What we know:
It contains six helices and six strands; from the N terminus they run βββββααβαααα. The protein has helices spanning 66-76, 84-101, 108-120, 124-134, 140-153, 178-193, and strands at 13-21, 26-33, 39-45, 53-55, 61-63, 105-107. By secondary structure, it is an alpha+beta fold. Mean pLDDT is 75; it is low at 154-168 and 180-195. The radius of gyration is 29 Å and the shape is globular. A hairpin with a 4-residue loop joins strand 1 (13-21) and strand 2.
Amino acid sequence: MQCPFCKADKEKLKVIDSRACDGDKSIRRRRECLNCGKRFTTYERVEENVRITVVKKDGRRVPWDREKILAGLERACFKRPVADSELIRIADETEEAIFAKFDREVPSSAVGEIVIDKLRRLDQVAYVRFASVHKRFKTLEELLEEARTVIDAKRFEDPSQGKLFVEEKPAEAPPAANGSAKGKGKSKAAASAHPDKPAEAS
């Protein structure tokens, strides 16, 4: 293992925090590089039997690797107010969805679409970052159009953080007029109370 910032060897890396996460299925370690002073997070998981192959856009076939999804999420959410637990949740849910739907092979585009949909509901900046790589925008206009789509949605609970989408409240029906409705109700009630009483001449 090397420092992702200065490429220092593992002898220069110090573990400053270690704890179980993901329902005790993995260990989260916070490390500090003694060479450059920067910190980063690593995860340790039990290696499971791989039964899914990812088919890349260029036709290459590679084994399913959950850590690659997590690494892509970390890059997209760099310096964004997104908790590590949220990234783990997205990686887990993506893996569950892929293993439930596909048996042996899965297109990389299908994996990206699942991740991008979940990320869109988490943070709008991270979503655009991830989408720019996954959708391979050829021009700046395509990237700006994708960003406008997110901004124009106007469904974020907190625009500065891009936390969650919220549903728009349906418009409430206007209250009924007080005067005419109540007056008519009283007239009908009075008429029913004295059905045989003739109307007085004016």
